[in-house]
Design a protein that fits this description.
Length: about 150
């Protein structure tokens, strides 16, 4: 390999390493969702579930929704299903009406490379919210499974 080719190869490797470093730094500086909006509350709830943070998820539920489940069991269930690092979360179509708000949570899952390359699929679910004081809280969560059957 001549000197020019070696320099080009070194430059490409340096750019790739720099790109990966910037991606890691940017990923660590994600801006937190805006909890003053229905979309922000839904996204914060979904991120909390994704990370296995049941306490944060529980605190974003409306009191009427919390009454349907047991706090400790909810937190344990969320913790046991957390750490879904191959899930990308977005929110769409926020709609505020007289009864509260609705937001669509879109969960896009990426699979590992299979026979035909990587795959992905999405799940789009409606989440309902209500005003509790000055805050938005979830009345119908995206994953009702965490609340289901949690009463003794």
């Amino acid at each position: 390999m001549d000197r020019f080719t070696a320099l080009i190869a070194s430059g490409v490797v340096a750019l790739v390493v720099a790109g990966l470093a910037v991606t890691q730094v940017a990923r660590g500086r994600e801006t937190p969702p805006d909890l003053s909006t229905p979309s922000g509350v839904v996204l914060a709830y979904a991120v909390a579930e994704q990370r296995g943070d049941g306490v944060t998820a529980w605190n974003l539920l409306a009191p009427s929704t919390q009454a349907r489940g047991d706090r400790d069991r909810f937190i344990a269930r969320v913790a046991s299903t957390g750490a879904r690092d191959r899930e990308y979360l977005t929110v769409e179509d926020a709609n505020i009406d007289a009864d509260g708000a609705s937001v669509f949570l879109v969960q896009t899952f990426t699979g590992s490379g299979g026979l035909f390359g990587s795959t992905s699929w999405s799940n789009r679910v409606s989440v309902r919210l209500a005003r509790v004081g000055n805050d938005w809280r979830i009345t119908v969560p995206a994953d009702d499974y965490a609340l289901s059957f949690s009463k003794p």
